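Researcher: I'm preparing a figure for a lab meeting and need a structural model of a single chain. I don't have an experimental structure, so a prediction will have to do for now. The sequence is pasted below. Please return the structure as tokens so I can convert it later.
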Amino acid sequence: MDTIGRQVTAFVTMFMAAGLIILMYMIFEPQRQTAAANEQVHTAVERGREIFAENCIVCHGTNGQGIQGAGFPLHTDGNKAPDDDRRAFLFNTISRGRQNSNGWEPNMPAFANAEGGPFNDQQINDVITFIGCATEEEWAEVPKIVSEDLGTPIAAIPTPPNLGTPNVHFIPGVAAASPTAAAGAAAQDPGATVFQNNCITCHRISPEFASGAQVGPNLTGVGARKIPSREPIIPNQIDITTEGPAGLEKWIRNPSATRPGTGMPAFGTDKISDSDMKALTEWLAKHTTPAAAEATKSCYKTVAR
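Model: Understood. Here is the structure written out token by token.
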């Protein structure tokens, strides 16, 4: 009986030990996996930041704010924690290049090895991860890399090549940017048609063009807010609630007069006629319902409790 008792005791002890090991695994393994995934994101951000600093700042700015007439803003809410569709859009744009939608040079060159560019797929994905996942502190490191590691004073960063030169050629295989929004929405109001023809390559607005691009700010509710609305807030914001369509026209016609260096291009009468501008701004001013609040997006995972 003593031998059997000892065997039973040993079995129970082993069983309890195995259960404890399994329990500890269930508790700590999700934390380990989450930490490993977050470390992969952080490493990709660091690699992408170096590539961005070396290759992208001339057209997109050291803080991703964009260069008017050259490169779109990239440090935007629309690019934050990109989903699969957004990653695919950014990957294709970086890989294949893009025609500048303002009809002037420079065009976005193709950067993929397969297109004759300098980057492999991993490097392109690292740049996308940096654009979409970097914290404000990590974005702030880009000017330091440029000035300290690369030895280029910020004031000496060159002007984008051929900036402001009319296009005389097209990048082979790259289609010019074209709007793709619901024609039915545009048919409801002349202003919506103007928006469709000129604005959805950068902006979305609900409910008519909720699937518009996210390069620029979401304009849903623009009729009830101040512009520009992105940080840093400037003292001479245009209050659309009081200035109405006239305030919108002031911004659209010459945005750099309100915010110097903005990535928003100017739309003179050669691009939008006075009658079309009137239709557009009156239509925009009707949009006073703000966009629904979106949950804070992050590429980094947390352990479910």
